[in-house]
């Protein structure tokens, strides 16, 4: 059964200024540790916990609010890869950030293909996890360049040949294409703004336009779309 954090479980309307986070890990010690550490940040509100992907989905379907799901990648019954797919299929606007003790590229790539916004290793300092939550909440991705390159290689295997149709035929302007390519490299809006000499607000507007023109759901799909091309 899901493990709601009864002392903190509230709806989004009750905490409008805070980032609602659902913690998912099969280790109760890690769940409790993350609950305590992340709960110290004034911008983060832990709404509940679960021990696997199926329980996480049940929490969300039962009304637990979440902007970000912080989820272990390896769990029994329903791991983070499958859990990401379940959550993103049912709740596409919720961001999923993977936590792993392994530098497990295959699992990470599968999770990203299923809609995860990125990943962090569990041994990073707590402030890095806090920043990672805020990063994906703001619509950015956390993908190491090595993972981005491996993802590109996976998508360009003979079994899935690149599509030769020019990207311009999808109606992207030169600048929109530059922004989309930067997203596929795992850059955040701030990093894209610096690279292309734009404001972060302008980058966000470009991302919205790209999503609309390509009929995509989120930045992960933009990255995969560009890498396939």
UniProtKB/TrEMBL annotation:
Residues 20-137 form the Response regulatory domain. Keywords: DNA-binding, Phosphoprotein, Transcription, Transcription regulation. InterPro entries: CheY-like_superfamily, NreC/VraR/RcsB-like_REC, Sig_transdc_resp-reg_C-effctor, Sig_transdc_resp-reg_receiver, Tscrpt_reg_LuxR_C, WalR-like. GO terms for molecular function: DNA binding. It comes from the Bacteria. Residues 165-229 form the HTH luxR-type domain. This is Two component transcriptional regulator, LuxR family. It comes from Paenibacillus polysaccharolyticus.
């Amino acid at each position: 059964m899901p493990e709601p954090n009864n002392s903190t479980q509230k709806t989004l309307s009750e905490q409008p200024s805070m980032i609602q986070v659902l913690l998912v890990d099969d280790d109760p010690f890690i769940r409790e540790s993350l609950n305590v550490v992340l709960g110290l940040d004034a911008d983060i509100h832990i709404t509940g916990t679960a021990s696997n992907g199926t329980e996480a989905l049940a929490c969300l379907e039962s009304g637990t609010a979440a902007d970000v799901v912080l989820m272990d990648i390896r769990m029994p019954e329903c791991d983070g890869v499958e859990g990401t797919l379940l959550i993103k299929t049912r709740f596409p606007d919720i961001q999923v950030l993977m936590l792993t003790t392994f530098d497990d590229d295959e699992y990470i790539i599968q999770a990203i293909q299923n809609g995860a916004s990125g990943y962090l290793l569990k041994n990073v300092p707590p402030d890095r996890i806090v920043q990672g939550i805020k990063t994906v909440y703001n619509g950015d991705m956390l993908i190491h360049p090595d993972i981005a390159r491996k993802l590109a290689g996976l998508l360009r295997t003979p079994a899935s040949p690149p599509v030769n149709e020019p990207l311009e035929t999808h109606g992207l302007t030169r600048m929109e294409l530059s922004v989309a390519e930067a997203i596929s490299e795992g850059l955040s809006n701030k990093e894209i703004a610096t690279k292309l000499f734009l404001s972060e607000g302008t980058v966000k507007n470009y991302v919205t336009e790209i999503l609309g023109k390509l009929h995509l759901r989120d930045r992960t799909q933009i990255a995969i779309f560009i890498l396939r091309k």
